[in-house]
Specification:
Elements (H helix, E strand, L loop, with lengths): L3 E13 L10 H12 L13 E13 L3 E5 L6 H8 L7 E6 L3 E4 L12 H11 L4 H15 L14 H13 L5 E5 L7 H16 L3 E5 L3 H7 L2 E6 L2 E7 H10 L6 E3 L12 E9 L8 E3 L4 E9 L6 E8 L5 E6 L13 E9 L7 E12 L2 E16 L33
Parallel strand pairs: 3-7, 3-8, 5-6, 6-7, 12-18
Antiparallel strand pairs: 1-2, 1-4, 8-9, 10-11, 11-13, 13-16, 14-15, 14-17, 17-18
């Protein structure tokens, strides 16, 4: 028996620009086309240019059963078109998508809701539209309402609900179905921050119970946290596929982050008439600029700057961020030679060493800051000015040891362990 939940083979979808009345493969498009035939109008006539747009082109990938799989890309990259094809809302122009098992697409929160009906009635009606049997809805009703936090208003028409109450109830109905494959399109952005976290927890729970989840989102931390693998779409084509954190790194940092940034022209450098940056670099312990580091080896962050006016007590600062845009640490220069010491005018190079076996795997970005502490004054802030990647070889000599699974966490220190033993 195949362990595949989804197989997509050379999937393409073409739209004719200007063909405003053509069927797009959906039920609505087909009905519209049929009505226009009845009134004697020709469907599918292209506009003056007859241009075509390939929303997807030769997209192929496979998803295993029980896997949480991410799909990312900018607006217009083809994500929504892909989900519509997988959900059987529209048909591909060429290629095919094979789905093994019962699936549910969370493409729109509040599917089937009627404003004049109560929350209770809408739960049953929406659930039925989505393929749930009445007995199944009744069995899960209390759980659905409790998750949505609308118990007090469940017998009130939803037209009186706030937007937050509406989307919470809609998401809860969708999330409590029991499909083999769950397709989720940006619904984790519904509600307030607290409810978003609750949605994330629910989706993680679905994935941990062996169901397949396809998650489409602009929330990169959600992708790296929940997904094992992902694809990156750009202009309808797959440009990157693989481990979720690698795909997210490619999306966020490709062509933007480099291990060294220099300002040959001081007038263009970050700073003011007192101090200016000249360069920020990341180096190996041997002094070589590099963009990839073994997790076990030290990493040097270097800032080069010019003090233009003497007499200020400057404090160089590095802010380090991981690939989920979480602050790993903030480091202030505490070199005893310069702490609380006014600096003379001239060129300075300060280096902060990150010990080996401290950072976690993944892409790191660095912001460079220059300030005075007493009184406080921020002289310059160069955000995300350099970046580098930390790799764990997995050969058993790091904190990972012989464990090969996903290892979350902001840092991954190799701690000193001591164990006492007494024989029985």
């Amino acid at each position: 028996m195949s362990d595949l939940a989804v197989r997509v083979e050379q999937l393409s979808k073409c739209y004719r620009l200007g063909a405003t009345h053509a069927s797009d493969g959906s039920l609505a498009g087909a009905l519209s086309q049929g009505l226009r035939r009845l009134v004697g109008r020709r469907p599918g006539v292209a506009g003056p240019t007859g241009n075509t747009l390939w929303a997807l082109r030769d997209v192929s990938f496979e998803i295993k059963k029980g896997e949480v799989f991410g799909v990312i890309g900018t607006n217009g990259s083809g994500k929504s078109t892909l989900l519509k094809i997988l959900s059987r809302v529209t048909e591909p122009t060429t290629g095919r998508a094979t789905i093994h098992g019962r699936f549910c697409g969370l493409l729109e929160v509040g599917t089937g809701f009627h404003p004049e009906l109560t929350g209770r009635d809408n739960v049953f009606m929406s659930g039925a539209i989505l393929g749930m049997k009445r007995q199944e809805i009744a069995r899960k009703f209390d759980e659905i309402v409790a998750f949505a936090e609308v118990e007090q208003f469940i017998d009130t028409p939803v037209k009186h609900y706030s937007s937050g109450m509406y989307v919470r109830l809609g998401f809860s109905v969708l999330a409590h179905m029991d499909p083999d494959i769950l397709i989720v399109d940006e619904v984790l952005a519904v509600g307030d921050v607290r409810f978003q976290k609750k949605c994330m927890g629910k989706m993680e729970d679905v994935g941990q119970h062996g169901r397949t989840v396809i998650l489409v989102s602009h929330d990169m931390p959600a992708i790296t946290r929940m997904c094992s693998r992902a694809i990156l779409l750009n202009k309808g084509e797959v440009v990157q596929a693989g481990a979720a954190h690698d795909v997210v790194n490619h999306y966020l940092h490709a062509g933007h982050i480099q291990p060294s940034t220099e300002w040959p022209d001081p007038a263009q450098a970050p700073g003011n008439d007192v101090v200016r940056l000249r360069a920020v670099r990341v180096k190996t312990e041997a002094g070589r600029v590099a963009d990839r580091f073994d997790i076990r080896r030290p990493i040097d962050l270097e800032v080069e700057f010019d003090v233009l006016k003497a007499g200020h007590i400057f404090v160089p600062v590095f802010n380090l961020y991981n690939e989920e845009d979480v602050t790993v640490f903030i480091a202030h220069d505490r070199d005893p030679a310069w702490q609380r010491t006014p600096r003379a005018a001239g060129r300075y190079v300060s280096t902060a060493r990150i010990p080996g076996n401290f950072l976690a795997e993944g892409m790191m970005t660095v912001a460079s800051i220059m300030m005075t502490e007493d009184p406080f004054r921020l002289h310059l802030h160069a955000p995300r000015v350099i970046g580098f990647r930390v790799d764990d070889s997995g050969d058993g000599d790091s904190a990972r040891g012989d464990f090969h699974g996903r290892w979350p966490g902001v840092v991954r220190p190799l701690l000193e362990w001591r164990t006492q033993f007494e024989s029985a």
